[in-house]
Input
Amino acid sequence: MADGSLVTRFDPYAARAQFPILSRQVNGKPLVYLDNAASAQKPRAVIDALVATMEGGYANVHRGLHTLSNEATEAYEAAREIVARFLNAPSPETIVWTKGGTEAINLVANGVGLSIEPGDEIIVTEMEHHSNIVPWHLLRERRGAVLKWAPIRDDGSLDMEAFAALLGPKTKLVAVTHMSNVLGTINPVAEITRLAHAAGARVLIDGCQGAVHAAPDVQAIGCDYYVLTGHKLFGPTGIGVLYGTAEALEALPPYQGGGEMIETVEKERVTYARPPHRFEAGTPPILEAIGLGAALEWLSQYDLAAVQAHEQSLYRHAVDRLQGHDWLHILGEAEGKGALLTFAVEGAHAHDVAQIMDRYGVAVRAGLHCAEPLAKRLGVTSSTRASFALYNTMEDTDAFVDALIKARNFFV
Output
């Protein structure tokens, strides 16, 4: 963690200049991109890495003996090492490539599900994304698992006492988000893991937002599994990561069958590769993995504490400017939350608000944000979300607030 002097040295304008798309206009206005929680934009370093690989260094990996294959394999496996460093994983062998966070969760659910018996319990929270709900519902439907829901408090924080009370001898898995994609709540995942392990349960952390904003350290957290997706981390789509401890990965059976995930194939039997290759059947997402590695290498030039401080300053500026507008209801105000502002506007549907703001070049997200149980808990049918990234500026924040006020005035 950097000292306070470094926090003041982050230059969002220099970072912004590395994103070609941010120089364009939308509806005649400068683009203000505040849909980062859905997907972040890509810096020139990532674009160049993808182009360079396609133009001068592409081949299939692992199975070739020629120069291009060796070069591609080296770049592909180097990206795995970069991810391991980013997560402070103990070794690259604990990093499994997937096509996204959703597939990573499904990989675990598929493996864990084979040992689930009727009545076994899986604990999730009310703030989970559908990607960390539906795979467990499938185990409820197919294996007789029981889903138990840890409640949230009115400020959007997790009720830890209620969570602890849910743990018991039938708890097989705890699946919880590191950072809510709606509330911005950053959960105490190390404490959650400690409590779950004491009850004999494994722990999966959905880090698709937390990997961007909460500086994950999987060894400090102590979880069995940690999931992230590349496209929210300034990398390509179609690439994600499942981190697992050596023990947890070894306990999982293969997820899919095909090339690469085997040791031997005979007419009478098949033997499987060790993790991580056991879970990487077929030709992998080579370009995407290299692109994610480039994104994390690019991100590593910045002090993440400085970036977080910058994003928090944007969030606080927006909230301060919106004080006194009683037509605005902010969803999620937990202490220490990430730089994500989700809100409902009295007298206006979230979709209409987002469409009007788009007229002013401001891109925000509207709807249920793939968190329908949370929306019901909060008593809303839809909401609008502005999510800040390192390349956003105070000018972006002011443009957002101005556009939001204009959108509200349209309905009165």
